[in-house]
Records
---
Amino acid sequence: MSDTPLSLLNRVFGYPAFRGEQAAIIDTLVAGDDALVLMPTGGGKSLCFQIPALLRDGCAVVVSPLIALMQDQVAALKELGVAAAFLNSSLDGATAMQVERDFASGRLKLLYVAPERLLTPRFQALLDDARVSLFAIDEAHCVSQWGHDFRPEYLGLSTLHERFPAVPRIALTATADAATRAEILQRLDLGGARVFVSSFDRPNIRYRISEKSDPRRQLLDFLAEHKGEAGIVYCSTRKKVEDTADGLKAAGYIALPYHGGMDNATRARHQEKFLREDGIVMVATLAFGMGIDKPDVRFVAHLDLPRSVEGYYQETGRAGRDGESAEAWMAWGLQDVVTQRRFIDEGEAEDAHKRSGHAKLDALVGLCEAASCRRVALLSYFGEASPPCGNCDVCLNPPTLWDGTEAAQKLLSAVYRTGQRFGAGHVIDVLLGKTTDKVDKFGHSQLSVFGIGASQSDKTWRAVLRQLVVRGLLEVDHTAYGALKLTQAAKPVLKGEEQVWLRAIAAAPPRRKSRLAASSGAGVHDDEDPLFLALRAWRRETANEKGVPAYVILHDATLREIAARRPATLTELGEISGLGTKKLEAYGEAVLGVVAS
Ligand code: ADP
Ligand code: ZN
């Protein structure tokens, strides 16, 4: 019987059913048509070209910008018994020649190549001789000149269509916005392609955004809920990366720093360890993460504000690619906003760029201040409507709002009466009625506003102040040492024409007792399950022997299901998602042995 997409999914990949649009995308390519696929990270883009590659005659050529990613995908395919190889600068001459020969002679089903390699005359000549089943262009947003990940070589990929008009092409990306989509279609000459846009929701990720009070402590509290799990902690500066990594090591975590100031070898070593070993916390600047397709990253933490909602979504999207529950947590504070505003204003960019920078920051701050579902806010930013999710901090622990009109008036008056020349600290001291040197020096104890806020705490005033700044009633003048100034928007509040509702300071964060049953249906995890831990130890050993990342052997979700179902025979084991024929053959007995012991 000849293979169908579904029979290959079952037999080779060991998965019972397609997700979302996968089946329709595969059919499009198998029929010889072009496709543009927009799917969130972890959505399952790879299968969309891997299965057509297995079904069509010849070898699929997969263009991928990242060496580490190619290696891991090829390692994973080989584990499944698929003839796959890659060509990039990491290979020595002899190995590269062998891969070229295998390609030319039709021994391969998938060949991954870096874009610069693809465009060389040597490779173009190879393409003429070989039989190509399809071209897959991964990370297709790299063609966008306005994006962060622009790769000039991607522009050259439009020639593929001219030279091989009969070979179907598929372009894939997790970048959602309409402008990038249009640019991909145009620059890659994909006018005739069917466009598949998936929902960008990542239901298994729980979003939590906290106010920064004691970030070190807050991070440790958050990590205490993720003991032994792999995750990423993002910081804005190299120094903070180093300090945070040191702090986590001192607290007993296996934490590694990663930033642009480290030498290449160390950076590569840290990345490699993070990918291959279990339970490592990577503390990194934004330089880390593009193309990291480790499926079992269980959390992403931000200790500083990212630059935009897009950035936030991309970075948090690195968690939970395997569909198991994962958490995105961020701590942010007024200082983050002030620093970023200054950064934008002092930059070299043109005014239009600055305005768009501020607008992006405002949107992000709006998300942080949201008193309704985070997911609704996030998805609506990408033009997608959705009901409240039940899996974010706001849904789980709705903030209380209080009528802060009077408090806002007091604070705005204090700023005004002290001459709009002072920063947050002094203004709050005046409100609290503290006699500091500064208060004495300027005679501020004589002001009518002195001590009018004494019934509230310092912490409350900081929260009020932050909310007034992010809502644009106050601005921070960084050309005058962070002096607070009133804006036009403050007037109606001062005159009592407008009410101000404020978020109360958050209560304790929700504990993770009831982790949402993940979309894979694996249910609530119990990472302390000794069988799961034993399976993980076996997997680590096996992966080390083979020199591949642990998840290339078997995914966490698969190990969990094995631990829960305790199969006794190969047939029972084969029913578990993630075990295709090859893996059952290679590891079945060993896994049953671990279960039985
Ligand atoms: P993307 O490239 O879109 O980020 P991947 O192709 O890496 O996502 O897939 C994410 C994870 O989901 C992988 O571990 C993959 O094996 C798994 N996966 C993909 N499709 C399915 C499916 N139909 N059923 C079960 N798991 C799937
Ligand atoms: Zn929600």
---
Amino acid sequence: MLRVAVVGSGPSGVYTAQALVTQTLLPDVRVHVLDRLPCPYGLVRYGVAPDHEKIKSLQQSLRAVLEHERVTFVGNVAVGGGDGVPPGRLGELYDAVVYCVGAATDRPLGIPGEDLPGSHSATEFVSWYSAHPDAATDLFALRARSAVVIGVGNVAVDVARILARGADELRPTDVPQPALGVLAGSRVREVHMAGRRGPSQARFTTKELRELGSLPGARVVVDPAELALDPAYGDAGPGTPPLPALVRRNLDVLRGWASAPPRTGDSRHRTIGLRFFLRPVELLERDGRVAGVRFARTAPDGNGGVRDTGTYEEIRAELVLRAVGYRGMPLPGLPFDAAHGTVPHRAGRVLRDGVPSPGEYVAGWIKRGPTGVIGSNRSCAKETVASLIEDAPLLAGRTSSPDPLAVLRSWGLRPVEWDGWLSIERAEATLGRSLGRGPVKIPDWPGLMGAAHGDGPV
Ligand code: NAP
């Protein structure tokens, strides 16, 4: 028998558990999937936007893995950091540990004013509307009329869309009740999303981009002059290589918006401005709060990048969301490549001083950086599990502990197992019913832990 701990129950952790129990070379692999939170599913629960029900429904297939007879969910157990179990001690309880801890923080912009009140990372906003228990429920008041979203990736599209949606559109989702109340009173009328390069280098995918144009209360505004600056905008001339399909589709959508005539009697009261060739250089301040963003105007440099043109533009905004990518965090006790925000590895085997460390593996964003769609984690996990199974003859029997959960409890931890998670699910359904809604997420630690242990009010 091989006893494996997977740290993290997001898609990469669950796909790792799945690959471990479905491979056929070693039939008796037992997997504990540990998570810092009492709830499973990582970014599928706390990152995928609430109005993306189809992606959210992936939880059903992740659930089937966590209910497998040789998989045990162990929530409310942090690994590494302040009160967390040090990786070294965890390694004493399991034959192998696979770290699937994702990219837990956001990339900084590194410009003046970034920390002003009213300037937030997109991660903070996403955590707030996703009811992450570490996010204060009163973090956002949405008193701003104008918001700037920096970055043109899918996270930027998510936060721009949530700002532009009405609360009525989000009521059927599991958005926590305090956030729904704030969204209902939102004064935001203009959302400006700004990319430092051109539309053909934007990172959003076409489906997500197109969705911005179908919001009932918002219209999308695109400046044709900014599209025209992009070398890929004009039809490719003879002899030029064809545009990648994604770029072509994105440009088609943007062109459609740029050329759309104004609708008479348009009752949509919000606008989403998609802006390009604007590199943020400073967040402006008034009365101690953010008041806008100063951008350097850029132009294509002919090599896929941009150069500054020496001119500047300011966009007024009382709320700024920085959506410039996630970043992996070092886990004390594990090696870390600070330049890439990942753990050094070879085919998933953690490298210490360039040498594979027996029994330590990585998968997901902490292995390859924060890129790709949820499904990308499946092949990533399979590669890591193939390495682990190849190493199995060296690993089996390394652990002296027949019952890691009992040891974790003896260390003063209070794991939440699958039954506890099911209690949280029931409590969220009950909470939703009391509000005349479907299941509604519990947004705080006391509420989650009370529900998990069935010994406290929701
Ligand atoms: P991302 O795709 O890497 O996009 C980051 C954006 O920030 C890019 O436009 C980038 O521009 C810009 N940026 C980076 N540094 C900047 C700086 N210093 N100043 C100005 N702009 C800067 O990251 P993401 O949006 O966080 O998404 C992460 C991953 O999650 C992606 O794989 C994404 O597809 C995925 N995701 C998917 C969905 C979905 O499928 N619905 C939803 C959310 C997230 P440059 O290109 O110029 O660097």
